[in-house]
Amino acid sequence: MSDESDPVAALRDHLAATEERPMEREAGWRLGEAQALAAEIADGEVDDATVVRRAAEIRTLLAEVDGTGDPEADDHVDAARELAARIANRPDGG
After folding, report:
1. How many CB atoms lie within 10 A of CB 45?
2. Phi-psi region of 65 (alpha: psi -120 to 50; beta: other; left: phi over 0)
């Protein structure tokens, strides 16, 4: 995953990687919501302001995930948190 060249795609990829991992129900729900938002902004058909806004929503959802119960999924969540924060704090969204 190339976090530096395309952080929005990397965010989507990290969240998608959690999909097949075993995890606690509450974490799974929040990750599913975050994954849907990441897929929306990764397709490139939304403006920069929407990318920033959705990344902020993803950051909020991920802040509510204390742990998934799966170390590999936790690593992807940690990476996604960092990416969402970076994207949400950029004025250009990407």
Report:
1. 8
2. beta
The range of the structural domain enclosing residue 21 comes to: 7-88
> Total structural domains in the chain?
1
- Which of 87, 88, 66 has its CA nearest to residue 77? 66
Taking the complete model, does pTM exceed 0.70, yes or no?
yes
Q: Is residue 93 part of a domain?
A: no
Count of CB atoms situated within 10 Å of the CB of 20: 8
Task: Report which DSSP code applies to 90.
Answer: -
Q: Is 1 inside a domain boundary?
A: no
Is residue 37 classed exposed, middle or buried when 0-12, 13-18 and 19+ CB atoms within 10 A define those classes? Answer: buried
> Along the chain (94 residues), what's the average pLDDT of each consecutive run of 10 residues?
77 95 92 96 92 97 95 97 95 56
Q: Which residues contact 44 (CB under 8 A, 6 or more apart)?
A: none
In a domain, 12, yes or no: yes
CB atoms within 10 A of CB 61: 21
